[in-house]
Hints:
Layout (H helix, E strand, L loop, with lengths): L2 H11 L4 H8 L3 H8 L7 H11 L3 H5 L2 H7 L5 E9 L2 H12 L5 E2 L5 E6 L2 E7 L15 E7 L2 H11 L8 E4 L2 E7 L5 E6 L3 H7 L1
Parallel strand pairs: 1-4, 5-8
Antiparallel strand pairs: 1-5, 2-3, 3-4, 6-7, 7-8
Helix pairs in contact: 2-3
Amino acid sequence: xxxxxxxxxxxxxxxxxxxxxxxxxxxxxxxxxxxxxxxxxxxxxxxxxxxxxxxxxxxxxxxxxxxxxxxxxxxxxxxxxxxxxxxxxxxxxxxxxxxxxxxxxxxxxxxxxxxxxxxxxxxxxxxxxxxxxxxxxxxxxxxxxxxxxxxxxxxxxxxxxxxxxxxxxxxxxxxxxxxxxxxxxxxxxxxxxxxxxxxxxxxx
Length: 204
């Protein structure tokens, strides 16, 4: 959908004729007609006026839907809360008793155990089974796990924002890529999600 089509759609959706829109913008009906046929472009002040009139952002008038989508931040979803534990079996028993429930799922090799309650997941991560995650370095014992649709896009967004120290994108296994960003107290926020560069690498 081009600029002219977007202006026409906004005009029609707001129940306006070309004459009515032209009057509101203090221009001729022919000017509106030329915009909608992509024969001319509106001045920036007219775009701003239309954004106020139609209650939309200027980028929703000027940009293609896909371009707008790419500019918007992705929705960040809370996945799991990780506790990094040294005595894995003892910790599992402790939380089974604390939460009055058996462990929900475990991973072979005692890498992690998950407790699902209140629509949340508390995951105990065995510090001795975390090669590549780097949680064993320093005092990081608490990790928030988030996921997004496009991991590379989120990585680039946070890199530009420069809100905290970040790792590179790491590969835990064939289906799990992630990176970490540290909060001001050096708590770890792990971001995971769709890693689309993987498809490109497989095509090479």
